[in-house]
Amino acid sequence: MPLGSLAGSSDQQYIAIKDSAETWRILNTWHEDLKMMSADEEVPDDSEAVTVLSEGQFIALIKEAASQDVLSNVSFSNDNSEEYEADLAEKDTKIAELVADNTKLKTDLERKNSELEYKSQHSEDYDLKEKAMDSIVKLVSIQDMANLSKD
Q: What pLDDT digit, counting tens, does each position of 66-80 carry?
């Protein structure tokens, strides 16, 4: 790993690079070994400033960090923030439309339910006739019971 290609990243202590053989190298840019090297020199893998991990080791490290909730506090810079802001605005608009549609559907459903409830109620005339019929049936039943008890 040429030191000159990493010179612009001196504000970060650690830099991770993956090569074509799927080997990860983690470089400690603040290590004393690097101060004695020129920009065109390669940093050897056996340097104390370099940690070499295979793809499997790197994945295991990330999985363990995620399981211990270490990654939840990591923040990454986002150079495409305008692109994401446009997507977020579009999604917010869609959410607002869906909320409005949902509210309208709920209102329509409540209105239809109240109409059905109103239609299922009987008129006052019907209720009076039903009470009169119940009373007649009770009187006839009482009379039948009285006749049966006389016999």
A: 888 877 766 555 556
